[in-house]
Structure formats: C-alpha cells, structure tokens
C-alpha cells in the first residue's frame, strides 16, 4: 500500500456503510483523515457502525441530517448505490465537495496495476476468467471491486507483484477522478440502470469514465460486435484492442469456430467450459487481456476449458439421471436470458422464468424461447411471461417459488434434458436478491439429487 499523505487531517464524510463503506472509512482513518460515517440504519441495528465507533471513528446513524454537511468536509465517499439525487449528495455537490466512490481510494493507494472490467452483461464472468488465467499463468490476479471484494480493502494488501482485477459498475465509475487502469475492458453496453442515470447516454458516459486518465501506454479492450464500441474507440487516448465474434479484427476474434489473437490461433470455441455465445465474447475479452499480459496460449486454453462459470451466472450444478441443471439466477433482464438460451438446444430445455413485475412485456424473448420443451413460470410477472410463451407456442406450468419450480421441471424432464433457471426478471418480489433465489435453486437440486 502506498504511503500517501493527501488525507492527513482532512475531514471526510463516508455516506452509506455496507462492506465497501466500512472498508473506505477504515482506510481513510488509517491514512490520517478525520472521518465521519453517516448511515441510514439505526445504530442499535448497525453492527458495522458499532464496530467503527469502538475503533474511534465518528458515526451518525438513523437518518441523513443535511446540517452534517456544515462541518467543512473536504471530501465525500459515498456508497455506489446511493443516487446523485440523494439530498446529502446533491448538497455536497452544491457546496463544491468532491464526491467519490471507494474505487478511487483503491487506485490512489494501490501498488498493483489495475485491470478494470465494466459493461452491461458479462462483467463478473469476464473478471473471474481473467483472474483465473493470470493466476494459472504464474501471475497474481486479485479479484476486487463490484464482484464482492471492496477494492479499497484488497488494494491495502496488494503488492507491485500483484494485479488488481477489478469489476466496476457504472455507479462506481461515476465517482472517480485520478483512477487509471493499465488495461480496461468494456464487455458490451446495453440500456440498463436508466432509473439511476436518467438515460442511456448518461449510463454510457458513466461507464466511459473508466478511460478518462488512460494514455497510449494503456489498453482499452472493446466489443466490436457493437457499433457503439467502434464509435467510442475514436474517443479514447488508450490503445484500442478490439474483440469480435462477427469479423476479423486486429485483436481477439472468432473465425471458423476457433479463437484467435492477432492471427494466432489460441483454442477452439467449443472448448470453452461454459456454454453460450456470450461466453465466447467473454473468452475473447479474456484472451486479449491474457495475451497483453504475456500469458501462454496453453495456459489460456487450459483455464478457459476448465472454467465452470460464476455462481448464479450460468453455473453448472451437475446432473441427476442425465438431466443437467444450470443456475442462471443472475439473469435479471431479458437480454441476459437471451444470451443464456443461445448456448442450448431449445428442444431439450425446461426454462424456469418470472419474477418482479416491472410492467414490461416479454415480446423480445419470443424468438429465443420458441421450441423450448417447457417453461415453468413463477412470480409477479407470470402473466406477462405466459403471454410471451403463448406467442412462442411453448407449453408452461405454474410454480409458487423456485423450489417448487425446480421439482416440477425435474418431474417433466427426460435424460439429456436441461433444467435452466434464467428468470429474465429481478428477484425482489419473492427474494431479497438474485443470490438468495439462486441458492434456493442449488438447495433444491441437492435435495432432488439425494432422493
């Protein structure tokens, strides 16, 4: 960790706790800042706030009093999920107080170079693939960021021999200033989080903050399947390395079923350990990073062939009586489910779908679900999903929850079939988050396996 002095005796407000907020508060205190933490959860119900107070850090809990900002803070570090419309954030900006997220702190203290990965879909899978390839190639790729390991925590113990492999959300990237990855990846850009960013242009601008400080000595890896990426390639000082499944590019590409990097064959697409066209894209992005990092083709091939996926993202659980089970609970939108289905023969797939009703229809999904063996439908959005199933000519059954759906799916499956949980909906109508939903699917699989 770099011994930086810029926070000594500076008043900093950390807004919002959770794991990243606590990590930021502790790091700032270690760097000599005068830290105040403000969190909406009452102190009595807030173990993180209690622990910080015990360690001598000031905490204000239970509300967000605007008058707190009259205490001459020089910086606010906010939880990424807190929108800029929040009164505390808006008031800070009015006062000219910089508002960061903790990934900026991670960059400032990190001795390790950073590989930053962002995008609408595929971030977690690509981040994990890159980390595994680096580690298997004798380098140290430390997972960090939006993948569940606060960047400012991981950066404290990283040395110059390590690399921070950092998943970055648009929320995090709105709060950076000096942040500069040596290699950056944008997996793809689709309209999402519009409620937070206001419009697609705002969302893209947030993502593109990733490259603000990059130079020609750094590498920007872009998905040239998208015209938008080709446009953005003209708007960065970084050296652009494209990847594509549709054309031969001066980077990583798919040609006649094989994956290449700058004319050199690396492996067959069919050897990738996880199915789906989207995972070919993720693998190509990973290959680009690996080759730029000096990893051999053999290590890349062995790693990507053995890759078993990420929990809740097209995660292969195993089979029961030759029926395969895949947990894709993280597919909380139509696009993610479309990508998941692209890796299978629909005639052998029983799809479990449905969840939070956001008012949208599922007509876009109709071409992708045609020919499915069966759908098992659940959740608030069930009637809307059923309308799509009717248009696609797909039979369906109702389920009351994921456990029930898993049982129904298995009862209707035959040897060679696939039971796929890929809901195309958020989970919040029934479950706290997609992880809890996916865990119920995993538990249901284990129960069926033991019967």
UniProtKB/TrEMBL annotation:
Belongs to the MurCDEF family. Pathway: Cell wall biogenesis; peptidoglycan biosynthesis. ATP binds at residues 119-125. GO terms for molecular function: UDP-N-acetylmuramoylalanine-D-glutamate ligase activity. Cell wall formation. Catalyzes the addition of glutamate to the nucleotide precursor UDP-N-acetylmuramoyl-L-alanine (UMA). The keyword ATP-binding applies. This is UDP-N-acetylmuramoylalanine--D-glutamate ligase. InterPro entries: Mur-like_cat_sf, Mur_ligase_C, Mur_ligase_C_dom_sf, Mur_ligase_cen, MurD. SUPFAM superfamilies: MurCD N-terminal domain (SSF51984), MurD-like peptide ligases, catalytic domain (SSF53623), MurD-like peptide ligases, peptide-binding domain (SSF53244). It is found in: Cytoplasm. It holds the Pfam family Mur_ligase_M. It catalyses: UDP-N-acetyl-alpha-D-muramoyl-L-alanine + D-glutamate + ATP = UDP-N-acetyl-alpha-D-muramoyl-L-alanyl-D-glutamate + ADP + phosphate + H(+). Keywords: ATP-binding, Cell cycle, Cell division, Cell shape, Cell wall biogenesis/degradation, Cytoplasm, Ligase, Nucleotide-binding, Peptidoglycan synthesis. Residues 312-424 form the Mur ligase C-terminal domain. Residues 117-290 form the Mur ligase central domain. HAMAP family: MurD (MF_00639). Its EC number is 6.3.2.9.
